[in-house]
Amino acid sequence: MKIYPIKTLERLRGAIVPASVIAVWQALSSQGYINPQILPAPTAVVARWLDYLRPMEAYNAAGSGFMAWLFSGELVRDAYSSLYRVVAGFLIGAGLALPLGLLMGANDKFYKLCDPLVQVLRPIPPIAYIPLAILWFGLGNPPAVFLISIGAFFPVLLNTISGVRNVDGIYIRAARNLGAGQATLFVRVILPAATPYILTGARIGIGTAFIVVIVSEMIAVNNGLGFRILEAREFLWSDKIIAGMFTIGLLGLGIDTGINSLNRYLLKWHRGMDH
Q1: Per-residue pLDDT tens over the stretch 232-263
Q2: Domains of the chain by start residue, with CATH
C-alpha cells in the first residue's frame, strides 16, 4: 500500500469542496436550471478558456519562431501584460515602502512626524486615484503601474513599521549588553526579527496589487486580463468572463504559493515554521 505524504493528502482534501461545487454547477447547467447566457456550464467555460489560450497558427506558419507562436495566444499575451504590471508596480511600491517603514519603525521622532500623513492617506483606496493617474500619466502602463504601486505600498509599509516596533526588548537588551553598536543592532537583531512582518506585508501587498491591476486595466489600458473581461461583458460572453476570472485566480494562487514557499525558506529559523 502506497503511503502519500501528509501535504499531498491535505491538498487532495482541499480539492473536495471546489470539485463538489463544480459538479453541482455542471449538473444544474445540464438539467437546464441555469440560463447559459447568465452562467454557462463549466464545460463551456473550459472550452472557451482553451480557445482563449490557443496560439494563432498564422504565427507558426509565418516562421516567426516557437516563442512568438506561443505568445501569440490572446490569453498568454493578456496574462503576461497583467503580470508585468503587477510585478513592476509591486517592486516600486514595496521598494519605497520598505526603507520608509524601517526608518519610521526604528526612529520614534520620524514615526511621529510621518504617521499622521500615513494614516490620512492609508484609507484612500487606489481606485480613487484613477482620475489623477490618468491626468498625470495619460493612458497605458504608467497609470496602471502607479495605481498598483499605491496598492502595494501601504501593506508593506505598515507591516514593516509594526515589525520593527514590536521587536522583543529582550533581544535588544541582550545585544547591547554584548556591546553591539546601533548599526549592528539594526542589521543583526531588529531587521531579522522584523522579517516575518515584512514578508507578511509583501504577501498582502502582492495580493492587493493583483486586485488593483484588474481595475486599472478596465479603465486605463487596452490589453490585459481586466481589459479582456470588460470587453467580454460588452459582447455578453459570459464564458469568456469566467475564463478570465479563472485565469486571474490561477495566477494569484501561483504567486501566493511562491511567496509562501519563499517565506518558509527564509524563515526556517523562526519558531512555528516547519523545518
Answers
A1: 888 888 888 888 888 888 888 888 888 888 77
A2: 74-266 (1.10.3720.10)
